[in-house]
Specification:
Layout (H helix, E strand, L loop, with lengths): L1 H25 L14 H29 L4 H22 L9 H5 L20 H64 L5 H18 L5 E2 H19 L3 E7 L7 E2 L5 H10 L7 E9 L3 E9 L10 H13 L4 E7 L3 E9 L1
Parallel strand pairs: 2-4
Antiparallel strand pairs: 1-3, 4-5, 5-7, 6-7
Helix pairs in contact: 1-2, 2-3, 2-5, 3-5, 5-6, 5-7, 5-9, 6-7
């Protein structure tokens, strides 16, 4: 609501400034002259022409350009531009009559007195210079037309770019979601093979994971507590599957959960640690820490290197990096440190 009020207030101020402009430029004193629209031909001309230009600007921007120019009806569009220019010039010619007083019909009908022979007629201030007046009208008209066309084309390009980015992000999500579900089903399958009592709890946690992916993960942003709950369920599923074969430490700072975050932007780094840092025959260790403050979130994922696991990056991790670049340009910092013994990822994200 506040954004809409601000939008209308901004346009109102622009329109008012545009209407005041001719009187400001024609004022001989430091104070703007109050226009006399009813009795002064010059003021009527300025006012009618500039109001017409304002009306045309918005009609052109919101209707003519989208309905005609962008619909390949350019001949009709430019014909309308020419017709409106002619109407504007005729309006300017009609209203620029200094002797016309809209509230004094008798004065309008009274003929002008004849000047004595030999005397020079006094024309007074007279009407504006017509060539100069028409030149200014055409110049302002062309400026407004080109400005509205430029703004409309720029807005259209922004929409196209946004739609393209949304399509790319949707594709990345579509690639990530089956990847998560496949790994989670494998975890539950391992529990079922061992007839572990935690299988039922794991199925409930899987249902919550699926509900999150199907219902919430398609939004542009999601409440941070929902994303953290998703991560919690994922880690608990891994605890159930791996048992005592790996030491898992998970810590989240309290508070600031009302923040918003892009769905599924953190999980790939955590999943990557489980994918490449777990081996039942070795001492496996995974540490996950999420720190949240007023402006940013920091994710730290550490895992000891183990043998007999894949070393290449998974599709989920690569897609997440691409999503970070598209959704958080200049608002994230990703540091990956690899040694002979460990692999550490630190992601700092502005919320």
């Amino acid at each position: 609501m506040k954004k809409k009020i601000s939008f209308y207030a901004y346009h109102f101020c622009l329109c008012l400034s545009f209407l005041v402009l001719p009187y400001l430029l024609s004022s001989q004193s430091s104070i703007i002259r109050i226009p006399d629209i009813l009795h002064n031909g010059h003021d009527r001309t300025y006012f009618s022409v500039y109001v017409g230009l304002l009306v045309f600007f918005y009609v052109n921007y919101y209707y003519f350009i989208p309905k005609l120019y962008f619909s390949n009806k350019k001949t009709l569009y430019f014909s309308l531009l020419f017709v409106f220019l002619i109407v504007l010039l005729l309006t300017s010619h009609f209203f620029d009559k200094p002797d016309i007083d809209l509230f004094n019909i008798e004065k309008m009908a009274r003929p002008k007195p004849m000047h004595p022979p030999g005397s020079k007629p006094d024309f007074g201030p007279g009407p504006m210079n017509k060539p100069n007046e028409h030149f200014n009208t055409i110049l302002v008209y062309l400026t407004g037309t080109l400005t509205s066309l430029f703004l409309a084309i720029n807005r259209r390009l922004q929409h196209v770019e946004r739609d393209k980015m949304q399509a790319e992000i949707s594709l990345l999500k579509a690639q990530i979601n089956p990847h998560f579900l496949f790994n989670t089903l494998n975890s539950i399958y391992a529990l079922a093979i061992r007839k572990d009592n935690r299988t039922a709890d794991a199925i409930v946690q899987l249902s919550e994971l699926m509900r999150y992916i199907i219902r919430d993960a398609h939004d542009d942003t999601i409440a941070l507590d929902k994303e953290l709950n998703y991560i919690h369920n994922y880690i608990e599923l891994q605890r159930s599957r791996l048992g005592n074969t790996v030491v898992i430490e998970y810590e989240v700072t309290e508070g600031h959960f009302e923040k918003k975050i892009t769905p599924l932007i953190l999980i790939s780094f955590i999943e990557n640690a489980f994918k490449h840092g777990v081996n039942p025959n070795e001492n496996s260790e995974i540490r996950i820490q999420i720190l949240i403050n007023d402006t940013a979130l920091q994710l730290l994922v550490f895992n000891k290197k183990v043998s007999s696991v894949q070393t290449e990056k998974g599709m989920g991790l690569q897609n997440t990096m691409e999503r970070l670049e598209r959704l958080y340009p200049d608002k994230y910092n990703l540091e990956i440190t690899e040694t002979k013994e460990s692999y550490t990822t630190v992601l700092t994200l502005e919320l």
